[in-house]
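Notes to self after the Tuesday call (sharing in case useful).
The group wants a holo model before anyone commits to mutagenesis around the pocket. I volunteered. Ligand is flavin-adenine dinucleotide. Logging inputs and output together so the record is complete.
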Amino acid sequence: MTPSPRPDLDLAALQERVTGRVHRPGEAGYTGLATPWNLAVATSPAAVVEVVSADDVSEALLFAAANGLPVAVQSTGHGIASDLDGALLIHTGRLDECTVHPEGWARVGAGVRWARLLAEAAPHGLAGPVGSAPDVGVVGYTTGGGIGPLARTWGAASDRVRAFDVVTGDGMVRRATAVDEPDLFWGLRGGKGALGVVTAVELDLVPQAEVYGGALYVDGAHAAAMLHTWREWCRGLPPEATTSVALLNLPEGVPGVPPPLAGRFTVAVRFVWTGDHGRGAELFTPLRAVAEPIIDMVGPMPFAQIGMVHADPVDPLPASEYNHLLRDLPAELVDALLEVAGPGTSSPQLMVEIRQLGGALAKEPAVPSAVCHRDAAYCLELVGVLVPPLAEALAAHARVVAEVVAPWDTGGVLPNFGAHAGAGGVARCYDDVTLARLTELAERYDPARLLRIGQVPPRTPAGVPAVTSPDVAVAAVAEAPATTADEEPTAQG
Ligand SMILES: Cc1cc2nc3c(=O)[nH]c(=O)nc-3n(C[C@H](O)[C@H](O)[C@H](O)COP(=O)(O)OP(=O)(O)OC[C@H]3O[C@@H](n4cnc5c(N)ncnc54)[C@H](O)[C@@H]3O)c2cc1C
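Result:
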C-alpha cells in the first residue's frame, strides 16, 4: 500500500542537495524502487532516494538524522529484512560502476548484480564468489559473508574483499581496508548494513573460466537413496568440490520451471568442481549410479552459466525462508527429514535444501571479519511461496522441521539467510563477542542509529531492539539510556 506523503518532510530541500532523484509516495518511480524482490515484505518508505554518489548517500543520511527518520538500504531487494514503513530508503541501483582488472580483481558499485560482474570478468578467464542466484547484488551479498557454489574452494565472498567505499551512519565518506579503518573493514565483512551504506567494493576475483558442474535431477521415489548416498559421498570430498542436495516440489505452469520437473516431487544434487574436469566426472560417478536421472546437466560449463547449478527463481515472489546451521548430518537425521519433508509427506515447501559447508569456508581469512559459524558443517534452508492457503502451513511445517533438526542445530544462522530469522535473528548470526563488537561499532559509526532497520544489532545497553515502525523506532532511541564503553550489550530477542 502506498502511504500518504508526509507534509512535514521537506523532500524538496533534500532533492536540492542530491544529484539523484528523490521519489515520494504516489510519484512515478516510487513503487518500482520501493518494491523488494521478496514480495512478502510490504514496504512503504516515507521516500526513496535514488543515489548516484557517496555525497548523495551522505546528504540522505544527514536529512534522515535531522528529521528523525530511520534509514534502510536496498539494491535488488533480494534480502529485505523487514518492512520499511516510514523509513528513508536509500536505493543504490544507479551506483553501477563495474571495472574488472585483468590481473584479478574488480571494483563494483553497490547497484551491480553478480550476473553483470561475471559477464565482465569472463573474457579475462576470471570469475567471482557468486551465490546460487547471480541476480543478487554483489555488495548486499558480500557484506553478509556470501556463500555460493565456489564456497568450499574459495571461501566466503567477504574473505576476498580488498576495500569498501562506505558512508557511515554519521554521514562521513570513508574507505575501509585492512589498514585504513580496520574496525570498519572487519565489521562490514559479515555485518551487512549495520555500520554504513557501502557505495563500492573492491574484491579479488578467481581464475575460473570453467567448472565441472551442474545439477542432476531424479524422481522423488529415489529421495531416500539419493540423500543417503549424497550424505556418505560428500563427507569425503576435497575442497575443490561444493555441493548441495534439494528436495523440490516445483509447481506446474510457472515460467522457468523445466516441464520434466514441474508438478512432481524431485531431488536435485548440485555439484561444482573447480579442479580438472576428468577428476570431477570421476568423483560424481556414485551419484549418477543412484537412479535414472530426469535431467543430468552436470559437465564442463562456462562459469557465466553458474546460475544453472541451483536454478533459483529469477522473478520476484512472496518467499518464506527458514534456515538452520547443522553441526552434522547423520543417517538418522536424513531419515527424520524425509519423514517430514520427503515425498508423500504433503510438505508445503517449494524446496528443502542442504548445502555442505566446510573446506575453505571453515578457515578464518588472513584478515579476520565478523563472519561467524565457520565450524557449521551443513546449512539447511526451507523455501516456500507465501500464497494463501500456504502461509500458515509453511510456518507450521517449518516448526516441525526445526524440532526434527534441533539435536544437530548449532543455533546459528548465516547473515545472508537471517533476514527472516525473526526475533533474535540478528543474535543468531553472530557469536556473543562478535555481536558485542558490532554493536559497539554501530554506536561509534552511527551514533544516532539511523541504520536501525532490518538486520542490525540492538542498541546498547538495554537491548532496545531494531524495530520496523519509525514511530516506535524514534521513541525507542529517544528512551534508550546513554551508552558507556564498559557496558555490555544485550542480544536482541
Ligand atoms: C533467490 C535467492 C538466492 C540466494 N542465494 C544466496 C546464496 O547462495 N548465498 C548467500 O550467501 N546468500 C544468498 N541469498 C541471500 C542474499 O545474499 C541476501 O539476501 C543479500 O542481502 C541480497 O543482497 P541484495 O543487495 O541483492 O538485496 P537487498 O535486499 O537490496 O539488500 C539486502 C540487505 O543487504 C544489505 N545491503 C544491501 N546493499 C547495501 C549497501 N550498499 N551497503 C550496506 N548494506 C547493504 C542491507 O542489509 C540490505 O537490507 C539469496 C537470496 C535469494 C533471494
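Two things stood out.
Residues 390-405 form the longest helix (16 residues).
The chain has a mean pLDDT of 90.
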